[in-house]
Design a protein that fits this description.
It contains 7 helices and 12 strands. It is of the alpha/beta class and about 250 residues long. It folds into 2 domains: about 10-145 and about 210-250, Rossmann fold (3-Layer(aba) Sandwich), CATH 3.40.50; about 155-205. The strands form 2 sheets. A 7-stranded mixed sheet has the order 3-2-1-4-5-12-11, with helices on both faces. Strands 6, 7, 8, 9 and 10 form a 5-stranded antiparallel sheet that branches. The longest helix has 14 residues, at about 25-35. About 35% of the residues are buried. The mean pLDDT is about 95.
Length: about 250
């Protein structure tokens, strides 16, 4: 199951205004790791580029991949405004085919958990391994499988103001599905000019929280040696995302 009835054009516009930049401490961590890698970096599931763009501005050679054309369009538009050239590719990870190999790849903010089918995740990990140099690090933030959500819950409504004075309101109900293995976020984006609704967009965003031990076993089956798993007690920026960071090294 691929949870991609999401990340449309209105979502991309909202996302850029709601989360215009990466968390400072998380960005600093990935910048430091990119510097230590000493080579080309890949950010799969890069979205609108809140990590990719500042890293490119800092002089790193970073390529981005995402399956959402609206998100990549937003990334390219932001890059143009910033005066930085970026390389982004519209592809699914399970069939990833890029012209380069990389010394590091990273997927922050739990985005890897958007791949909810284990067989598809295995294909994605194999394709990532094929694009990494031996000894390269793969850094994955995963949503913990100990999230407590026993009944549907309405999340906090969020509102952003657009540059033309219109606004976008996001409402969402979170629930567990499929014997509690999946988290479903049923959201609606409503754009208003004054009191008039000018556009709406709905999405069904599905996440699969993975137990760290399960993901580490999958990585081992896909040509990686797992170096470590870290939580907020090791890396303070993980407290904001509620994720666990898995670091794996591409085998020779």
């Amino acid at each position: 199951m691929n949870s991609m009835n999401a990340y449309g054009s209105l979502c991309a516009e909202f996302y850029d205004l709601d989360k215009p930049s990466a968390p400072v401490d998380a960005l600093a961590f990935y910048v430091d790791r990119a510097r230590k890698s000493g080579g080309r970096v890949l950010e799969p599931m890069c979205g609108s580029g809140r990590f990719l763009l500042p890293m490119s501005l800092a002089g790193f050679s970073v390529d981005g991949v995402d399956s959402s054309l609206p998100m990549l369009a937003a990334c390219s538009a932001r890059a143009h405004r910033l005066g930085v050239e970026v390389r982004v590719f519209q592809q699914d990870l399970a069939s990833l085919a890029l012209p380069h190999r990389y010394s590091m790849a990273f997927i922050p903010s739990g985005s890897i958990c958007l791949i909810t089918d284990e067989s598809e995740l295995q294909l994605a990990l194999l394709r990532l391994r094929a694009h990494l140099e031996p000894g390269a690090a793969l850094l994955l933030e995963i949503v913990s499988d100990d999230i407590e959500l026993t009944s549907p819950a309405e999340l906090e409504t969020r509102v952003v103001t657009c540059t033309d004075g219109s606004s976008i309101t996001y409402t969402c109900v979170a629930s567990r599905v499929a014997s509690a293995e999946l988290l479903c976020f049923s959201g609606t984006y409503t754009k208003r000019a004054g009191y008039r609704v000018v556009e709406t967009e709905t999405e069904e965003l599905v996440l699969r929280p993975y137990a760290p031990s399960r993901l580490m076993a999958m990585l081992a089956d896909c040509g990686f040696t797992v170096a470590k798993a870290a939580d907020e007690s090791d890396l303070t920026f993980l407290a904001n995302s509620g994720c666990t960071l898995i670091e794996a090294i591409a085998d020779a």
